[in-house]
Amino acid sequence: MVKKFVLQWHLSENCNLKCLHCYQENHKPIQLEFDKLVIIYKQFKELLNKKKMKGHINITGGEPLCNPYLFKLLDLIKEDSDLITFSILTNGTLINEKISKKIKSYNPLYVQVSLEGGKKTNDYIRGKGTYKKVAEGIVNLRKENIFTSISFTATSLNYKEFPKVVRYARKYGVNNVWSDRFIPLGDSDKSLALNYEQTREYLEIMNKERNKLKMVKNNNTTISMYRALQFQMTNDFAYGCTAGDTLLTVMENGDLVPCRRMPITIGNLFDRSMYDLYIKSDVLKDLREKKIPDECINCEHSEVCHGGLKCLTYAMYKDLNHKDYGCNL
Ligand SMILES: C[S@@+](CC[C@H](N)C(=O)[O-])C[C@H]1O[C@@H](n2cnc3c(N)ncnc32)[C@H](O)[C@@H]1O
Ligand code: SF4
Ligand code: SF4
Questions:
Q1: For residue range 200-211, what is the model confidence (pLDDT) as tens digits?
Q2: Closest ligand, as measured to the CA of 165
């Protein structure tokens, strides 16, 4: 498979929900005009051209389906479909039949919707009624045969409910369940982050569910376990964070950061181009070097793991020279 350069694009912080764990600091809907979005899009194409790579855009927010320019942007991407693929990361609550058909007409690689546990826990975190609305959204996506993925963000509140999410995924014909750990950013409550005992238990629960699915005949739902530290449980390949290397993120005001979960501003795209920032930023150069934290030097996995989830390390210590907060090796 050809490796693609990924752009995670937060179109706006505008959202119809206000989830407990959300990393958005304020829900002030800064909205760039469409001509400004086109400038950012052209800069991404320039970067792809100079890197001689194909690209993929994860369109997100806030809630991308609240965005007035979403479909105009998809029109642009459709014209470049031989160069750029896309997916939509959404809370899933606004996907009626009409929207689902419209999304299908643009041929997304996948649509990701979020779910945080059983009904009670999910609705506590995401808001009343969201559990049911997400199911309706998924049914509409699957009716159009759109590859659908669930994102489960593991916090100390909900990590034990992963099996409930897998059951839900199977019930509604979801193709994939993806999960990563909560990152305490902004004003969010640090105690929601999993400590290493909880991380271990969460990985064991995930792996158990994955093994259970392997025994089920005609199962169409997979569980991805390729994020940081997950290899400790699966013996699969270790995840290598690509932030700053083949992943960049654009915030709602045009700021470039390595990843939404590592909010170190590299510059603003209306002052300097994406390619220029990508090539010259010392922060991005350091990330590309994949330095191994001192605490990991003697670990047998260090050459593949590189210290685990860098964004979590940055959020906890404001310093990348530490091993993953969830690792007790
Ligand atoms: C910011 S949302 C944007 C798309 C859409 N509004 C949604 O909720 O899916 C993208 C994903 O980030 C996750 N997320 C939000 N805050 C997070 C945090 N502090 N740490 C880790 N993931 C987080 C959400 O649960 C969701 O799966
Ligand atoms: S729906 Fe997404 S963007 Fe909106 S508050 Fe929840 S996690 Fe944040
Ligand atoms: S000690 Fe460091 S390199 Fe080893 S598994 Fe843990 S985080 Fe990864």
A1: 999 999 999 999
A2: 1
